[in-house]
Design a protein that fits this description.
By secondary structure, the chain is an alpha+beta fold. It is about 25% helix and about 25% strand. Helix 1 packs across helix 3.
Length: about 350
């Protein structure tokens, strides 16, 4: 079994705390590059900003070329207009939950200027201001007048949340998908035997899976796995007599294997092999309930002549808000499942008709 120790927790903390809104992922990419600096791999950054990693050693004869992808970017904001005195209009980048942003601390630009998404104190609100969601166009990011010269239109802003661990509980921003990126770093450092591992740390996933398709065409794999972090909508039902049937994953039940989502019907042969690996290793797993959402697999599986693909995600609560909550035990099970699943890959099954 592969354990997650202090060094892996530290890596996740640094990745989570870093700023990497879609289109400006370089700070996150530099952390990954530094982590892989002593590994026997070849790294290159493509024109879109994807970090593509291949092994230096020659692959075994007939070894399947397996692309494993995890995205570097996160949802956030972009400054769009300066109104003076350090007040900026802004737009959302990706699917930020606007109900959760009022009064939140943010970090702006590459100089990491602190700011706040300003809102009127509730005791001064009148009429509908007390109950209605405030439109985004009426909100401002306030960095203070003195910081104005260090901030400009076009700068990105991220939530100012710091990573914390409380026993099995992990708290931080951007677990979607820094948890996947941390998992993929470990996989590159300890590649499964019998495959040619192709790793893609992709960009711009949150605004349309833009990096993954480019990465897949560059690397030309036989099959692919997208590592991600998926919402755990596992709250109790408001009606205590009725089961919550709207969940798609639950905390504490291991990584989620996708059979279908809003962009992909996973390759059933790969789904079966992941399930078989989990059961052989006595690893917890769950099936992500079919429904909305997409991962990089949605872009990858349509490239070239078609690429058999599946997604594997760690469940977490409150994604796309200022703080996410995940369990270390779920993450550790995901690390073991992706390694075991690829180490025991049966390529001849993938070559049969779907």
């Amino acid at each position: 079994m592969i354990g997650i120790g202090a060094s892996q927790i530290d890596l996740l903390a640094r990745l989570s705390n870093a700023a990497g809104v879609s289109g400006d992922e370089s700070a996150v990419r530099e952390i990954v590059l530094a982590e892989l600096g002593s590994s026997p791999v070849k790294c290159r950054v493509d024109a879109l900003g994807n970090l593509l990693v291949t092994q230096e050693r020659d692959p075994e004869k007939g070894a399947p070329r397996v692309l494993v992808a995890a995205h570097l970017d996160e949802v956030g904001f972009m400054l769009t207009h300066h109104q003076g005195d350090g007040l900026f209009r802004f737009a959302r980048v990706g699917g930020v939950d606007k109900k959760s942003i009022l009064g939140k601390r943010v970090i702006v630009g590459r100089e990491k200027i602190p700011g706040i998404i300003g809102c009127q104190p509730v005791h001064l609100a009148v009429g509908e201001e007390k109950t209605k969601t405030i439109p985004l166009e009426k909100l401002r990011i306030d960095v203070g007048a003195e910081a104005t010269a260090r901030v400009k239109v076009g700068d990105r802003a991220v939530f100012g949340t710091e990573f914390k661990q409380q026993g099995d509980i992990l708290l931080g921003k951007a677990f979607d998908d820094r948890m996947g990126a941390a998992t993929l770093v470990g996989l590159v450092k300890n590649p499964p035997p019998g495959i040619e591992l192709l790793a893609a740390f992709t960009v711009q996933e949150e605004i349309g899976l833009r990096g993954a398709g480019v990465a897949a065409r560059n690397l030309d794999p036989d099959l692919a796995v997208a590592l991600d972090c998926t919402p755990a909508r596992d709250f109790p039902s408001f009606d205590e007599q009725t089961e919550n049937t709207r969940y798609n994953t639950r905390l504490g039940r291991g990584p989620a294997i996708y059979v279908a989502d809003g962009g992909t019907i996973s390759d059933p042969r790969l789904v079966g092999q992941l399930i078989a690996a989990a059961e052989a290793e006595n690893l917890p797993y769950q099936i992500r309930q079919p429904g909305g959402g997409r991962t990089d697999a949605a872009a990858i599986h349509q490239q070239l002549g078609g690429i058999p693909s599946v997604s594997l995600s760690v469940p977490a609560r409150y994604l796309h808000t200022p703080v996410s909550l995940a369990l270390l035990s779920d993450w550790e099970a995901a690390v073991n499942l992706i390694h075991s699943g690829l180490a025991n890959l049966q390529l001849e099954d993938i070559k049969t008709d779907r």
